Amino acid sequence: MKNTENIPDELIFKVLNNETSESENMIFQDWINYSPQNQKIFLQIERLWKNSKGVGDYYKINQEYAWDTIYKKITKKPRQVIFQAVLKIAAIVAIAYLLGGLTIYFIQPKPQQGIFTSKEIYVKAPLGSKAEIELSDGTKVWLNSGSEVRYPTIFDRTKRDIYLTGEAFFDVEKNKQVPFFVHTNDVDIKVLGTSFNVKSYPEENLVETTLVEGLININKKGSNQILQLKPKEKATFIKDIRDRAGAQQFVVTENIDTELYSSWKNGKFVFRREKFGDLTVKMERWYNVHITVENKKLYEERVTGAFENESIEQALEALKISVPFSFKFTKGNITIN
Questions:
Q1: CB-hemisphere CA count at 13 Å for 175?
Q2: Tens digit of pLDDT for each residue in 35-78?
Q3: CA–CA separation, 125 and 10 (whole Å)
């Protein structure tokens, strides 16, 4: 593409609909790499496009007809048509959000943060927040607090790769010809279309993969050993434990309550017989606070409960009912005795 400053309007819509050819992908990549302004423009259009889909689900708007009409007209009108169109969609989204009808793409307390590199999109959910994104193939990804993903602006024709640090829930769009891969520092997961949760925080010793529906294959990086997971199974990979032959192994738990491992994406903090020490680590991410437990005897205490709209102070007061302790809260720092 000789002139990378501009791009045909219809190509933007084809990218959003995942209908581009190889040559069109190259044109789009040249344009997206041309300037940060181009990256910013496309990110804004993509976000509004996806939000418009959410509005359509809630308000039964004939979205396909509306966008098809715009698509047919944009070759006859200047690019301003695109921005007029997305501004109208933005207005609908804003109204829906104010009315409380749209929550799927506006997860409190902070929105997702997305930035482009040369060929990738990077999304991070800061501590104390969650994020939800939709990939170009229709796959939905929920990010838990302190988590991040990166993925190509356009997926390859033979595979779909996404790289995760932290915790995420995936609802993968089925495509038998183009498998979906989730890569973490320790394991790789292959899936054709299914729903599952992955937790792989670098500071934790465990990597947990919980399957809600479908089938997935998991293998440790650098290993040929493949584990196939079935619905309601959880695979736990312990980073620093090896078998007698020196190989690291997965521990599989069957017939689990998957809600325990996926409810966070719906704003619920659920825990069952959790060690108090492990729970405080999760609470630090959930509430974006720093917790110091001075009474070390509390670490092994088991607690059960669920939080949804409670503040950190309310959550701690509730925990005190089952595990007696005192706490002091000062400017985001909590000390537990």
A1: 19
A2: 777 777 777 677 666 655 444 333 333 444 444 544 444 444 44
A3: 32
CA 200: distance to chain centroid? 13
Cα–Cα dist 79/87, whole Å: 13
Q: What is the CA radius of gyration of the chain?
A: 22
d(CA 128, CA 211): 25
Q: Distance between CA atoms of 248 and 246, rounded to whole angstroms? A: 7
| 131 HSE (CA, 13 A, CB side) | 23
Give whole-number Cα distances, 215 to 186, 218, 289, 328, in Å.
Answer: 20, 10, 37, 46
Query: Do residues 149 and 143 lie in contact, with contact meaning Cβ atoms separated by under 8 Å?
Result: yes
Q: What is the pTM of this model?
A: 0.66
Distance in angstroms (rounded) separating the CA atoms of residues 122 and 114: 6
Give yes or no for a contact between 131 and 112, defined as CB atoms under 8 angstroms apart: yes
Query: How far apart are the C-alpha atoms of 337 and 327, rounded to whole Å?
Result: 6
DSSP three-state, residue 200: strand
Peptide bond into 231 cis (omega under 30): no
Please provide residue 48's backbone torsions phi and psi, each rounded to the nearest 5 degrees: -70, -35
Half-sphere exposure of 140 (CA within 13 A, CB side): 13
The CA distance from 158 to 128, in Å, is 36
Quick count: other Cβ atoms within 10 Å of Cβ 325?
16
Q: In angstroms, rounded to a whole number, what is the distance separating the alpha carbons of residues 118 and 273?
A: 45
Nearest 5°: phi and psi at 217? -110, 135
Q: How far is CA 235 from CA 92, 172, 195, 264, in A?
A: 42, 19, 14, 19
Residue-level pLDDT at 105: 31
In angstroms, how far is CA 291 from the centroid of its own chain? 25
pLDDT, one tens digit per residue, over 246-286 is 556 788 999 999 988 999 998 899 999 999 999 999 999 99
What SS3 state is found at 259?
A: helix
Q: Distance between terminal CA atoms of the chain?
A: 65
